Amino acid sequence: MAGKLRLVVVTPEGKTFDDDVEQVVMPGVEGQLGILPGHVPLLTAIQPGELVLKAGSRGDELAVGGGFAEITGDRVTILTDMAVKPEDIDEHAVERALESAKQALLEKKAGPEAAELMALIQRSTAQLELKRKRRN
Amino acid sequence: MASTRDIRRRIRSVKNTAQITKAMQMVAASKMRKAQQAALAGRPYAEAMNRVLSSLANRVGSISHPFLEKREMRRPCALVISTDKGLCGALNTNLLREVGMLPKDTVFVTAGKKGKQFVARMGRELLADFEVKDDASSYKIKQISQFLIDQYLEGRIDSVSVFHTRFVNTLVQKPERNDLLPIGRLEKLEAGTGPAEEGVIEADANLQYIYEPSGNEVLSALLPAYIHFQVYQLVLDAKASEHSARMVAMKSATDNAKGMIKDLTLEYNKVRQSGITTELLEIATAQMAMA
């Protein structure tokens, strides 16, 4: 078990990631969280942002939405409503979605719809940031 | 005996019907594949979420959250997930039979036209009706669960059970009742859909967790997410059942039509043959009379 973390990322649409890694950095609600093997058991809410993982010399990134992370000694389970690999992000489509969501939000200031739009905006922003960082 | 023209006409009309049911079967089959995949894709998430919730409940100890409190049952509410269209065999009939046995004071929320019509016919109280299309996004479905949660928190309803058709396989769909709110014993949560996946690590009660921000805050964020996801999953399951049932119903309709065409063709040939025989007899008799 030493030196390995099992990272599982699940969304309602299926399992996005299931493999051994050495390190995970996730966007917790109270700041970035770096997880190494043997971390104390932790249950936390996460916010939309980047999930960075390291496995060997390989590094990888995922754009994730809001959700939860459960960490036991050698296992990290991430429950989120979105998880996208950078190569699957269609920048233009996301930009358009972001724009129309912002527009819609101006009209609806409160209520559950506004909350949903906010979440959509956060998710889109997370995707865009990851994509742009990748390119530079 | 019917004339050959009548039989021909009937054969033609049955053939047309067979063509239509065949087309509907094809459509349902392609929708079914998609719906089944979507329903199955959510299962790992369901298992992970149930595991997290039950392990959390084991540790936080006494939790107070409105979703967990049992209330006096004055206004139970039922969410009925039915189909919009018919032609799917006994799917809705079986589901609505269960629904019909509910106590008189139950109020209803429906997704799908058939359930709505049923509630109206029974003269029960309908709180809201939602339209769920085949390509419904999780956001659309979330409106249903959000509505239920709001009603529940405002005390207008005291419990929520969901009636849907559980997708077992393409040939078997079972009407099922799931109690959504209040959430019963968290410790005993099972993956409601299908057998548990192999290799899932059992929650270890001895682990001392850290919670961020805090146990109660994590829980109160997790519980609504759990409800939303449950409803989402149940709707997807119902969709998979609907398209499977429709495909099977349309397939048997097509088969029946084909059988009927065969029988009618046989009868048509018999009538035609007897017509020819009669004509020949008439000619022969006339000839003999003349000779």
UniProtKB/TrEMBL annotation, chain A:
Its main location: membrane. Keywords: ATP synthesis, Cell membrane, CF(1), Hydrogen ion transport, Ion transport, Membrane, Transport. It holds the Pfam family ATP-synt_DE_N. It is a peripheral membrane protein. The keyword Acyltransferase does not apply. It is found in: Cell membrane; Endomembrane system. CDD domains: F1-ATPase_delta. Produces ATP from ADP in the presence of a proton gradient across the membrane. Belongs to the ATPase epsilon chain family. PANTHER family: ATP SYNTHASE DELTA/EPSILON CHAIN (PTHR13822), ATP SYNTHASE EPSILON CHAIN, CHLOROPLASTIC (PTHR13822:SF10). This is ATP synthase epsilon chain. It comes from Verrucomicrobia subdivision 6 bacterium BACL9 MAG-120507-bin52.
Automatic annotation (TrEMBL), chain B:
This is ATP synthase gamma chain. F-type ATPases have 2 components, CF(1) - the catalytic core - and CF(0) - the membrane proton channel. CF(1) has five subunits: alpha(3), beta(3), gamma(1), delta(1), epsilon(1). CF(0) has three main subunits: a, b and c. The gene is atpG. HAMAP family: ATP_synth_gamma_bact. It is a peripheral membrane protein. SUPFAM superfamilies: ATP synthase (F1-ATPase), gamma subunit. Its main location: membrane. Keywords: ATP synthesis, Cell membrane, CF(1), Hydrogen ion transport, Ion transport, Membrane, Transport. GO terms for molecular function: ATP binding; proton-transporting ATP synthase activity, rotational mechanism. The keyword Transmembrane helix does not apply. It holds the Pfam family ATP-synt.
